[in-house]
């Protein structure tokens, strides 16, 4: 490109999605005939429940779905999300507070666009989902990471959060059950963060997309129910992708105080307008329907969780705590660094190099911890078939043991 054909600093300062990059490379290798086992993408391998697909099929034949609808979403879907929030989260919101977005990522992006001015800071407990800091930067904000390691169960410490707070702190992200660690934060931690945010006039962005994926008696604490006084400064992010095995349907939402919801709808009106009507009709069936299919998927995830944690801890140099939420295992692989691995005797000095070598040599795709602000770790999604999981762990162990 010529000198005058420059791109914006805004986009040049943003890193690509590491999870999607790993998934894309794995898929390209598969397309080239390589037998790759993919632990990269957080994408349930189950089909979308039949009753949801049936609702979409009927919607395809209804002419009313061939036209634009209100930008913030079908009124019926916004009402259904409000009812679902009362059912699952335990507190009441109005349909006017709901904005339906093109997947959960648009809800994240829109939230920071309407909240942040240049230089505003957002505290991000770390390890974090890879898109959080990039969405903050795209809005002109400054990500402020606060690390909590495996010794704390990846649960943030309030003293550390307070130490990171400045006069520019505008918001904090809460993500429990957590991606990438699978940690479910305690009710005490969630409540303490909410009360701290209320005291210091800090927005709370609560990403609850893994809300129903809990194991070993762990429970999701809904911050808006735990500390009602925080609701005037609370934005909840959610969607159908994980709970209902609907990642490709692209339906997410945010729930916010009315001025924020109106601002997000205004922004969306200039970006994408409404979400595809057929997908919205499918989402109505999902959020209004029973959770039986969700619980069946959770049972399968639970069995895979136990299998992958056992397999990872059986590899010399790997330590993996047992997650109690979501569908990720977050393994400490520092014991594999700086030593020969595989038939080629490859020596990796970082988890990023390790992930690349594991994919190239053993044909196992995982996401390096650098993508989540946590060097020295690999994230493995166990949202894949049992036989694929077993084969992938077998390959990893054989490669790491040579």
From TrEMBL:
<dbReference type="InterPro" id="IPR050596">
    <property type="entry name" value="AspAT/PAT-like"/>
</dbReference>
<feature type="domain" description="Aminotransferase class I/classII large">
    <location>
        <begin position="35"/>
        <end position="395"/>
    </location>
</feature>
<keyword id="KW-0808">Transferase</keyword>
<dbReference type="InterPro" id="IPR015422">
    <property type="entry name" value="PyrdxlP-dep_Trfase_small"/>
</dbReference>
<dbReference type="GO" id="GO:0006520">
    <property type="term" value="P:amino acid metabolic process"/>
</dbReference>
<keyword id="KW-0663">Pyridoxal phosphate</keyword>
<comment type="similarity">
    <text>Belongs to the class-I pyridoxal-phosphate-dependent aminotransferase family.</text>
</comment>
<dbReference type="Pfam" id="PF00155">
    <property type="entry name" value="Aminotran_1_2"/>
</dbReference>
<dbReference type="InterPro" id="IPR015424">
    <property type="entry name" value="PyrdxlP-dep_Trfase"/>
</dbReference>
<dbReference type="GO" id="GO:0008483">
    <property type="term" value="F:transaminase activity"/>
</dbReference>
<dbReference type="InterPro" id="IPR004839">
    <property type="entry name" value="Aminotransferase_I/II_large"/>
</dbReference>
<dbReference type="InterPro" id="IPR004838">
    <property type="entry name" value="NHTrfase_class1_PyrdxlP-BS"/>
</dbReference>
<dbReference type="GO" id="GO:0030170">
    <property type="term" value="F:pyridoxal phosphate binding"/>
</dbReference>
<dbReference type="InterPro" id="IPR015421">
    <property type="entry name" value="PyrdxlP-dep_Trfase_major"/>
</dbReference>
<keyword id="KW-0032">Aminotransferase</keyword>
<protein>
    <recommendedName>
        <fullName>Aminotransferase</fullName>
        <ecNumber>2.6.1.-</ecNumber>
    </recommendedName>
</protein>
